[in-house]
Automatic annotation (TrEMBL):
Transmembrane segments annotated in the record for this chain: 12-30, 36-53, 73-93
Keyword Transmembrane tagged: yes
Keywords annotated in UniProt: Membrane, Transmembrane, Transmembrane helix
Native source species: Acrocarpospora macrocephala
UniProt xrefs under InterPro entries: DUF3017 (IPR021385)
Organism ancestry: Bacteria, Bacillati, Actinomycetota, Actinomycetes, Streptosporangiales
Protein name as annotated: DUF3017 domain-containing protein
Length: 94
């Protein structure tokens, strides 16, 4: 899928679909840590795509410089995954 400028949208849509899937899981009644894990893994995948796919092929996923985009997506993805794991641990078990 491209716009009039022949910019590919598939990397951006892949990350957006992962975020929508995570929100959809919450709407279906799954635990929020499960949804956060899905969204975090998707963001880490987006960071990987931004790192590996050539600049012109990343389309709307490329907003800033490659280094900034990868770092931003990786940090937020990592924090979502770590937060999901932390909320899944029962610290007050009897």
């Amino acid at each position: 899928m491209t716009n009039g400028n022949k910019t590919p949208w598939w990397p951006y849509l892949l990350v957006a679909a992962g975020a929508a899937a995570g929100l959809g899981l919450i709407a279906l009644g799954y635990a929020p840590p499960t949804a956060a894990m899905v969204m975090g893994i998707t963001m880490l995948g987006g960071a990987g795509l931004r790192l590996v796919v050539p600049g012109r092929s990343t389309g709307a996923l490329a907003i800033r410089s490659r280094k900034t985009d990868v770092l931003t997506l990786a940090v937020f993805g990592f924090l979502l995954v770590v937060g999901a794991i932390a909320f899944s641990i029962d610290f007050h078990a009897p």
